[in-house]
Design goal:
Length: 159
């Protein structure tokens, strides 16, 4: 697939603001390993090859294993994730594909049982951020791996 255009080149101020927002959202209490997992899940759901590629590499940098990364797509059935991670996945899915009647109470209760109010807000901002990046990358067909060097991902080992 051929890339369409470079969003950074055509709207650098907006790109920088989104980048600043994403960086700020990651500075909270949530673990970087967990954030990489929710970014993987949202990117899978949105069909964003560029972001999926990036966040799998970041998850590996944070010490996550190959099998767990393969199981993100099947987290509902997989025994490899904690209740905490499952709640984050459920929240991510609900916010990525918003149900017609909003986030179900059961999903809210699941995330509330595992996260503080502050952490839920931080998780929500991180889900919002990855969804914005997914939409940019899908719209303009960003090429997976094309920004690896800029993000320090060019040395991530692959099996």
């Amino acid at each position: 697939m051929t890339p369409r255009l470079n969003a950074l080149q055509h709207a650098p101020e907006l790109y920088k603001k989104l980048s600043d927002y994403s960086i700020a959202a990651k500075k909270g209490r949530l673990d970087a390993k967990l954030l990489a997992l929710i970014e993987i899940r949202a990117s899978q759901m949105n069909g964003c090859a560029f972001c999926l590629d990036m966040h799998v590499k970041q998850a590996k940098q944070h010490g996550d294993g190959e099998l767990r990364l393969h199981h993100v797509a099947i987290w509902h059935e997989s025994p490899l994730f904690s209740a905490h991670e499952r709640a984050a996945f459920a929240w991510t899915e609900a916010l990525t594909h918003l149900p017609a009647h909003g986030v179900p109470d059961a999903v809210y209760e699941q995330v509330r049982a595992e996260f503080s109010e502050q952490e839920i807000v931080e998780l929500t901002h991180n889900v919002m951020g990855i969804n914005a990046w997914n939409r940019l990358s899908v719209a303009f067909r960003n090429v997976p791996g094309s920004a690896d060097k800029a993000f320090g991902l060019d040395k991530v080992p692959f099996a």
